[in-house]
Amino acid sequence: MEFDVVDLSRLQFAMTAMYHFLFVPLTLGLSILVAIMETVYVMTNRPIWRQMTKFWGTLFGINFVLGVATGITMEFQFGMNWSYYSHYVGDVFGAPLAVEGMMAFFLEATFVGLFFFGWDKLSKVGHMIVAWLVAIGSNFSALWILIANGWMQNPVGAEFNPETMRMEMTSFFEVMFNEVAQAKFVHTVSAGYVTASVFVLGVSAWYMLKGRHLELARRSIAVASSFGLAAALSVVVLGDESGYSASHTQKMKLASIEAMWETHPAPAPFTLIGFPDKEARETHYAVEIPWVMGIIGTRSFNQVIPGIDQLVTEAESRIRSGLIAYDDLMTLRELRAETPEDVRLSFEDHSEDLGFALLLRRYVDDPREASEEQILAAANDTIPGVAPLFWSFRIMVGLGFSFIALMGYFFVASNFRTGRFPRWALRVAVVMIPAPWIAAEMGWFVSEYGRQPWTVDGMLPTALSVSHLSVGDLLLTLAGFALFYTVLFVIEMSLMLKYIRKGPVEDVDETDRWMARHEHRLRTHDGRGPFAEPGSATGATTPAE
Q1: How far apart are CA 48 and CA 220, in angstroms?
Q2: Which stretches in the chain have pLDDT values below 70?
Q3: Residue 532 is assigned to a structural domain of this protein
Q4: Same structural domain for residues 128 and 230?
Q5: Measured distance CA(129)–CA(134) in Å, rounded
Q6: What is the pLDDT of residue 99?
Q7: Which phi and psi (to 5°) does residue 356 adopt?
Q8: To which H or E segment does residue 282 belong?
Q9: Are 175 and 96 in contact (CB under 8 A)?
């Protein structure tokens, strides 16, 4: 079996990135849910909500620590495995990562300590503010990282400098408010909210099946289903926004997701299911829904979505244009100040296609020496793996609609059926716990694999972005990362399962103070109301309540 430096570098980054994202969505969502629970505690002063905040906050803390540990590794990889990428776009890509570190991560990390160790040192309102600052910091971290990633998908606010041979930022405002970045941010954080909601719902359902911590479980289900239903609905809406953005920023990705080989008359149909065949350039046994793709992708009835074949032809044309830019660039570097003005003007006219000429470096050292066959091969390289994208997208979407159904059912049951749930529904909630992670990983696969063969779309091919490392170096570090991350995964699962089995720890002092304040009401209450333990005929209360 032959190993390739580019493929091994991609595999290593994909492994570490997708592993890291196992922690990110739960961190994003749990931070908000914990802040909501503490807000309810401050408003009602009921100990059960403080107990809930501490319990789910503990699980958040475990997940947060391991998420930080795995995230740091990724940033180092930019310098180790992707050094030319870092050199080429570091002026642009490094800015949002630096802001993330200064503004968001330090905010989040600082207030995490106050959250866990400040219960008896801060006022209730002060501690609640800390909880919200942790949540805001977590979401700000995602914002700046997704701004950086969004620029890789749609490189705006920057231009290539032939003197330095690097991309240089021209507008931080354009980078920050890049439409792809903003769509990715809201879509990603909403997916994180769904992940945490399904997690809280599933763990709470497990408690109810075991007959343990029933009051915490009922309230947690009520909060998670309400928050999760809103988040699941927003994921669908915001995912549609990402698709609309791709229709004019990453046309090849959109066409590959839909396995749309030929350009259809507007509005294009949506392929519900089928079996894409890249060699034959067709989708076998396709089941199509007329008009839907055109309406969703372009929000119009008359705008055409180009098919893969048309986009390959356009890529071939851009490769030829890029060859002119490449030839002019070599002249600029050779003559420098003595370069004729017509060469400079020619380079400016064709510079946007320079990246397409660099696709030929896979076949020949000097793109100007490429044959017609090599130009055609480079144009076909712009097609990512259609079948993996096609199916990954449909798995993600199918799971997304299942989350709406799950959250909708428990939302209705929590609010209109007095919090009683059939055992089959509770079992479904437990089984669904891993599903949001599968959907999230499929989403990132579609986003990143669909960008190939580019590291920066249309500008820098992935094959040129890697460091000069040996296959042995990459195999060694890949094995090391796999082993290290496996150990971290075992630690994460062991700690999470340990504290879930242990359950919430009763806050005795706070409960005693609450019961003392309500002693008269506890003695005189004889009906079934807010102080009654569900299932009790006498209306007696439990300390947790």
Answers
A1: 11
A2: 1-2, 417-419, 506-545
A3: no
A4: yes
A5: 9
A6: 86
A7: -70, -35
A8: strand 282-289
A9: yes
Is residue 370 located within the same domain as residue 430?
Answer: no
Residues 10 and 40 in one domain: yes
3-state SS assignment for residue 268: coil
202 and 348, same structural domain?
no
Structure tokens at 541: 């209360």
The pair of structure tokens assigned to 413 is 């049951």
β-bridge pairing 282-289 and 454-456: unpaired
Copy the structure tokens of residue 344: 């400079």
Question: Which residue type occupies 234?
Answer: S
Separation CA 466–CA 508 (nearest Å):
57
pLDDT at 107: 78
| All residues at 6 or more sequence positions from 86 whose CB lies less than 8 Å from its CB, including other chains | 78, 79, 93, 94
User: With the CA atoms of 442, 448, 452 and 457 taken in that order, what torsion angle do they form, in degrees rounded to the nearest 10?
Assistant: 150
Instruction: With beta carbons less than 8 A apart as the criterion, state whether 127 and 38 touch.
Output: yes
pLDDT for 1: 52
| Residue 293 domain flag | no
Domain membership of residue 202 (yes or no) is yes
In total, how many domains does the chain have? Answer: 2
Q: Residue 408 is part of which domain span? A: 5-250+384-502
Same domain, 15 and 154: yes
Would you say 263 and 303 are in contact if contact means Cβ atoms under 8 Å apart? no
One domain for residues 364 and 408:
no
Residue 299 included in any domain: no
**CA–CA gap between residue 146 and residue 184 (Å, rounded):** 7
